[in-house]
Design goal:
4-stranded mixed β-sheet, Iron ABC transporter substrate-binding protein, D-Maltodextrin-Binding Protein, domain 2, Ferric-bd, about 45% helix, 5-stranded mixed β-sheet
């Protein structure tokens, strides 16, 4: 690194976990590069970087969900970098083809059912959520959920527009109203028997199962994870900002975070999956394994607007 570069890296992060901070401290111990962390909501961080422009102090931007990462890329907030280490540790479908951002963790969005209401064997794919047997038994998070937007984009890429439209109409016809604004209360509703099935990120159920409150754990224990074939996955990801004053240091931090050893800790912080394999999280291991959708994160981001349009037309509130 050039001598005139400041020995610090400023991170704008949409993640909020103490384990992340521990990893940043370990990076500083190994490299001598101080990490300054600014946490916030993803969309607010994107807007902040856009407002700050070239005067932004951010060196690394960490966001959750492919759609948000793509949105930041469209706003020209990242710079392209070349790194053999990043290309080795991050699978091609989990990084930008131009090297502007790279996945840090994987998260899955399976179907979670209450077997007392819905037989798990009824659901083998997301398409099965439109089966007439699920009438008034399905609960969903609202259209504003970027996770559901990316799920719809996944279906759109794999199955095409007509099939996705038909799926949306059938699934929404099965959905109990109102739509939920968060995954956790939605999963409580399934566990309490208000719904028979829901689509949610795996870490929400994992958190409930690990909760100190026995009532929460008991409710969560009533749910069974069903892995559609294939299962939609998403990511948290990071990229070196265009405004970075220390791009070399930011790249070193990114390489550190995606390395198998550090990446395991980064994923464990939120009950997420590492970039490769299943990790050692006992709660996630109990959920079983899945066949991941082949759709790339870049495709999810690129088809987001079309997905939202189809969701709106179908009446997903």
């Amino acid at each position: 690194m050039a001598q005139n570069r400041p020995q610090e890296v400023n991170v704008y992060s949409g993640r909020h976990y103490n384990t992340d901070k521990q990893l940043y401290s370990e990076f500083t111990r190994r490299t001598g590069i101080k990490v300054n962390l600014l946490e916030g909501k993803d969309d607010e961080l994107i807007q902040r970087l856009k407002s700050e422009g070239n005067n932004s102090k951010a060196d690394l931007l960490v966001l959750v969900d492919a759609a948000r990462i793509y949105r930041a890329q469209e706003a020209n907030l990242f710079r392209s970098i070349r790194s053999a280490e990043l290309n080795k540790d991050v699978p091609a479908n989990l990084r930008d083809p131009k090297g502007q951002w790279f996945a840090l963790t994987r998260r899955a969005r399976p179907v979670m059912v209450n077997p007392a209401i819905v037989k798990p064997g009824l659901i083998r794919s997301y398409a099965d959520l439109s089966r007439p047997e699920l009438k008034d038994k399905l609960c969903l998070r609202n259209r504003a959920s970027v996770y559901n937007q990316s799920l719809t984009a996944d279906e759109l890429v794999r199955r095409g527009k007509p099939a996705t439209q038909q799926w949306l109409q059938g699934m929404l016809a099965n959905t109990k109203r109102p739509f939920f604004t968060s995954d956790t209360p939605m999963l409580r509703a399934v566990g309490q028997g208000q719904c028979g099935a829901a689509v949610a990120n795996q870490y929400y159920l994992a958190r409930m199962l690990q909760d100190k409150n026995s009532t929460e754990r008991n409710t969560a224990s009533k749910l069974k994870v069903v892995w559609p074939n294939p299962t939609h996955i998403n990511i948290s990801a990071g990229g070196v900002t265009r405004s970075s004053r220390n791009p070399e240091g930011a790249q070193r931090l990114l390489e550190f975070l995606v390395s198998p050893q550090s990446g395991a800790g980064y994923a464990a912080a939120n009950n997420e999956y590492p970039l490769k394999g299943w990790g050692n999280n006992p709660t996630l291991k109990a959920f079983g394994t899945f066949k991941a959708s082949p759709v790339s994160m870049e495709q999810l981001g690129r088809r987001n607007r079309e997905a939202v349009q189809l969701m709106t037309q179908a009446g997903w509130e």
